[in-house]
Amino acid sequence: MIAFGNSKKSDSDSNKDNKSLSDGVINLDQGDPTMFEEYWMKMKDRCTVVIPAWDLMSYFSDTKNVCWFLEPELEKAIKALHGAIGNAATEERYIVVGTGSSQLCQAALFALSSLSEVKPVSIVAAVPYYSTYVEEASYLQSKLYKWEGDARTFDKEGPYIEMVTSPNNPDGTMREPVVNRKEGGKVIHDFAYYWPHYTPITRREDQDLMLFTFSKITGHAGSRIGWALVKDIDVAKKMVQYLTVNSIGVSKESQIRATKILNELTKTCRTQSESFFEYGYEKMNSRWERLREVVDSGDAFTIPNHPQAFCNFFGKTISSAPAFAWLGLKAERDLGSLLKENKVLTRGGDRCGCAKKYVRVSMLSRDDDYDVFLHRLATIKDLKCIEP
Ligand code: PMP
C-alpha cells in the first residue's frame, strides 16, 4: 500500500505519546473494526450516499426474488465483488441479506433444524470457537436445536449442524468440518474473514451455505449488513421466513450504503494505490509484525504461527494476518485477569471452549489503542511479573 504510508513501527504517531502514558482501559474484547476508518476518511466523499425522504419507503425490494427484501443493486454488487476477489462462487445459489451475519446465522440454524425430521438438532463447533455461537444457539432455549459444544469430541447420535469458521475466530486457522459423518450432518460455513487482507485466498469456496459480513470486510459494522450464499432453495426460503418474522426484512438505507461501498471495493481492487485490500493487508501485517516482536522478545506469551500460502488474489505468497490474536501464556494462569489488571480487556479462552491461559485479542482497534496495548504487553512480558 502506497498512498497511506503505513510504517512498520507505528500505525499512527499522533497522540501516541499521550496515549501510551494514559491509564485508560483499552477494550480489545469486542472485534469492533474501527481500524479502517482512516482509509475511508481518505476516500472523502467517494462513497457518500444521499437518500431523498420519498425514496426506499416500501418494505419490498423485488417481489420476484426468494429474498424479496434484497435490493437488486446489492445483489449485483455482492456477485461482482466475489467475482473480482475469487473467494466464493455465487452462481446457482440464492443470496439472502441479513441484519449482519449474526441474524443470518440464527436464520440458518432455524432453517436447517426446522427442515430436519428429528429435533432438537445438535449444534457444534471445534474449539476454540467463536463464543457468540454458544449464545446464538442457546439463548432462546429452542426446541429445534441444542448447543453441544466441541465438534471434536461430539459423539451424540442424531442430526447435527457444525459451524465451520475459516479463517477461524479466534485463532486464525483455516478450517474444515471435523465431524464428517456420512449422514445427518449439515455445515454452516462462516467466511466472515475469508478476504485477502486477513488471509491468502487459496480457493474459490463453493459450499452449500456460506455466510459473509460487510462488517469485517470494510469495517462498516454499524451498517449491520451480511449475506448468505445458499444452494438449496428450501433452506433459502426458510431463512427468509425467519428474517420476515424477526425483522420484516433488512434496512434499505444500509443496503444502499453497502452497495456503494462494495462497488467501490470492486472498482479499485486492482489499483494498487487505492485498493482497500492492499491497504488492509499492509496494515494488518504491520500490526502482526509488531505483536510478534513483543511476544518474541520475552518468554511469557505464545501466539500461533500462521503458515504462508499463495494468494490467488494478490498473485504472490503471503502470510495470514488474522483479525484476532489468540494470545496464550506459557505459565498456567488466567491471562484475561492478568491483562485486565493491566487495563486491557480481552475475551477469555474459556468463552471459546478453552483454558483461561488463552485470550482472544482484537487486532481491529484504532491505532492509538493498539499502540497502548503493545506498550502494556511489553511491560508485562517479563516472566517474573506473571508467575502465580
Ligand atoms: N461470524 C464471525 C466469525 C464473526 O467474527 C462475526 C463478528 N464478530 C460475525 C459472524 C457477525 O458479524 P455481523 O453480525 O457484524 O455481520
Automatic annotation (TrEMBL):
CDD domains, sorted: AAT_like (cd00609)
GO MF term set: carbon-sulfur lyase activity; transaminase activity
Family to which this protein belongs: Belongs to the alliinase family.
Keyword check for Oxidoreductase: no
Every Alliinase C-terminal domain range: 26-380
Zinc is among the record's keywords: no
Basic and acidic residues bias: start-end ranges: 8-20
Alphabetic keyword roster: Aminotransferase, Pyridoxal phosphate, Transferase
PANTHER family attached to this UniProt entry: BIFUNCTIONAL ASPARTATE AMINOTRANSFERASE AND GLUTAMATE/ASPARTATE-PREPHENATE AMINOTRANSFERASE-RELATED (PTHR43795), TRYPTOPHAN AMINOTRANSFERASE-RELATED PROTEIN 1 (PTHR43795:SF15)
Region (Disordered): 1-26
InterPro entries for the chain: Alliinase_C (IPR006948), Alliinase_N_sf (IPR037029), Ethylene_sulfur-biosynth (IPR050478), PyrdxlP-dep_Trfase (IPR015424), PyrdxlP-dep_Trfase_major (IPR015421), PyrdxlP-dep_Trfase_small (IPR015422)
Protein name according to UniProt: Alliinase C-terminal domain-containing protein
Cofactor(s) in the UniProt record: pyridoxal 5'-phosphate
Source organism, top-level taxon: Eukaryota
Pfam family, one: Alliinase_C
One GO-annotated biological process of the protein: amino acid metabolic process
